[in-house]
Fold these 4 entries.
Entry 1:
Amino acid sequence: MKKIILLFIVSFTSFQLHAQLFVGGVALENLPVGMYISVCPEYNGGFSSCKAAVDYGQGRHTFGHVQKLFYLTDEKGEIRKFRSGVAILNLMIKNGYKVNFLESAHSCNLYYK
């Protein structure tokens, strides 16, 4: 019994947790490997907070909650707020994305997985 508990503890602590990233209700982890995405920080009235606009070729829609279709959201569909473009960059890397093109943390950057 002790071996089973120890195995469970070791496997749980070695499991790397990461936040799921959604855009318009689509989990980015479900996109094909090798697909490029563009992520642009959009600052709200100054540099105190920003949201991340994402383009993975999903097309444009003119109905419904257009704004939520293009921004990183949580699993509940709430738009994620970030303190800076660097926070977005760190989140993308933490979730397995690699930087393909980085102009600066304050402009659009290309990633791939």
Entry 2:
Amino acid sequence: MDRDLELQCLLLHHIFRLSQSLRQGESTLDELPSSAELARTYNLRVETVKKKLKHLLHLGLIHAISVSPKRYRFDPFGFSELDVGSEIYPILHDETSIYYLDI
């Protein structure tokens, strides 16, 4: 798998888990990740994380829910509308993938 694609999947999976926790009432909006928090968690440059998040935003898989700091939440509707031809689609829908999203 391409390194950029794997990084997008990793960030999306992290945001997905925290968004699920929020939906179940186990966390608050303040616990959703910002780009800086994601960068620290995965030891990446903030600019790199922001670039990957921008692509996930463009795909409609996440959306920003605050301004400062900008926190990200998984978008289940965007996931259901994801283009089948997208390179990330098969990874997120393959039950054997570590990035599989069970929605």
Entry 3:
Amino acid sequence: MTSPEGPELERVRNWSAGLGAALGTVAGEVGDLGRRIAAGWPDHHGREWSERLLTLRTGLERAGDAAARLAQAADRGVDGPVGPATGPRLGGTAARRAADERGVRIPRLDDPEDG
């Protein structure tokens, strides 16, 4: 992926947008099914299946949102990770330091870097 206008990014954008739309549609159908099961099966088994379908719907909505974020990132031409970075920052193969600080840093009450 060399340029934001390249065919690779266009395919990623189209695929991600289509996937997000499809997952949103399926999530809506699963939610409808859960409501129909809860209405037609009003005992504890119906509630259990309705809760399972609600969990599935929530997962599908999250996956659809992630696909939409990927499509937006492809629109911006982002080559890095999508979303907030988590975890430690590791060095790469270029033999550059990930951070200038060395060793363990113990916080102090009078730490001048805290401002």
Entry 4:
Amino acid sequence: MPENPILSLPESAETAYLFRHALLRDAAYQLQPPAGRGQLHLLAAELIQRLGPDVDAFAVEIADHLHAARLCGAAAGNLATERHFTEIAARRAETLYLHAQVVLLSLRQAEISEGEDLAIALGRAAKSEYISGRLAQAEELATRALKIDTPGTRDAYGLMSEICRRTGRPSKAIEYAEAALQTARTHLDEVGSARAVAAIANARYETGDVEASGHMYRQAIEMLRAHDEPRLAASLQGNLAVVLAQTGRLEEAIAMGRKAMEDSHVLQDPRGESFAASNLAALLGNADRMHEASSLYARALQLTARTGDIRSRATVLSNFASCCHRMGRLEEAVASGRQALELLREVGDLRQQGTSLGILGSIYRDLGRLQDAEALLQQAVALHARTGNRRFEALHGIEMAILFAQTDRRPKGQKLWENSLATLNRIGDARRASEKIQEMRHACAKAGVAPFE
């Protein structure tokens, strides 16, 4: 390394000050040629590794120095060490929900990896982009991972299934989930197989195949418990609770949903707990326990703020808007509904956008803003048809039918009512069908028109 006048100053208070002053320290650094800078970064990484047994706590700093050394051309013989500490740093950032840092570190790891390590790094970056609500970026990274023939692609297939489910491609969602299962089975990966079965269950549920999704959730939960994966098992238990409610077993569903939330809390899984709290709130709402539901939605919003899960936060806001609507807190319902819709449009979640539009349309209908309500409900039904969300296409189709009856367009409303009610019965949601009949009769009586029969 060439001699530098600043570096060769004798130890004194003045030299100590020089290297504690950021601008002077940077000036000394800039005086070094690239090769010298690279050696300085390698030295810094080596010294940090000597700090003590818990060197992983400094993984980010070590990874940063080794990355900087590589950019300066001093990577020879250090790539394995850089990969090691970059992966540790990325995993630590993942546990802290520092999604931007996860993406940055994972992409750095991908630059110097191949095969299984490359697929895992790209998949980790894609997952963090997805949680952050950057669905297009997540899909791009997951697609890159899928081009690598390795067991690590099973997670990328699963993520692609979720992305397709959210962006209006239900058949592709099932296709990707089945590919994830095939990949996991080929490589004898039982946990990966369980995750893939859960992804298929999610996709089947969205298309209205409630019976099949319930069976698959049970299968996935059993597999996960057998292989000591309690976090995901608890999360899926919350999903199964929603399925049980649709088949008329509401009290059993509430008990299961509460257990899922408690398990996620004990397991210190705030993201899983947020899902479970939101699901349980919806179940309690179905039982007309609205104050309990409202408190749980507030809890879920706190958790999504902690985990940085933008898309899930939007979903909770949308459901909270529905809760406020039923409690008569219409101004709060509108505010939450609008905020949810804005976030969902930002992240590109078409499926949940449809649900949010329908909820907001129903609120506007009860506020007497019938023209606005009709416009939103039409958009909702169109999105549900596009995304294959048969259940909500039927539910919001019924809302449209009631609106048509209220505005002297009974023949149009009658046909929509019959088709939508038939869909609910066909997919096995007898409970909501019964609720909607009562809702329709009440709304028609209030408007002074004959009910549909």
